Amino acid sequence: MKKFIGLILLALLTICAVDNVAEAQCAMCRATVENNISAGTNRIGSGLNTGILYLMSIPYVAFVVIAYFWYKQSKAQQAKRIQLAAQLRNAGIPYSGTTPL
């Protein structure tokens, strides 16, 4: 679990570190920003960059949330298997950890 959290923190730090580098834009957005910069304002350009970074982060956040719930579910199933094995062992029934087909 600590390794998983460490990897998530490393990914977030990496995203924050490349924030200034990851300012790629499409051609239409670039033209809009260039027109606004030539007019003397840069508010739209920074807003577009923030929006692009926000949209880029959504799939990663969704992946992390799904992975977290998957991990919690697998830990709960593992605990149930361990409890079942202990109950069967206490009852004197051999249990190998696999279910018959």
Compose a concise summary of this entry.
The chain has helices spanning 2-17, 27-39, 43-91. The chain is mainly α and 101 residues long.
Return the domain count. 1
The stretches of 5 or more residues where confidence is low (pLDDT under 50) are none
Number of alpha- plus pi-helical segments: 3
Q: What is the makeup of the main sheet?
A: none
Report the end-to-end length measured between terminal Cα atoms.
32 Å
**What characteristic shape results from the CA principal axes?**
rod-shaped
Order of helices and strands: HHH
Structural class comes to mainly alpha
- Rg, rounded, reads 25 Å
SS elements, strand count: 0
Overall mean pLDDT score? 79
Could you estimate the helical fraction of the residues in percent?
Answer: over 70%
Residues in β-strands, percent: under 5%
Give me the secondary-structure topology.
Blueprint: H1 2-17, H2 27-39, H3 43-91
Account of the 3D structure:
With 101 residues, the protein is an all-alpha fold. 77% of the residues lie in helices and 0% in strands. It has 3 helices and no strands. It has helices at residues 2-17, 27-39, 43-91. Helix 2 crosses helix 3. The longest helix is centred in the middle third of the chain and has 49 residues, at 43-91.
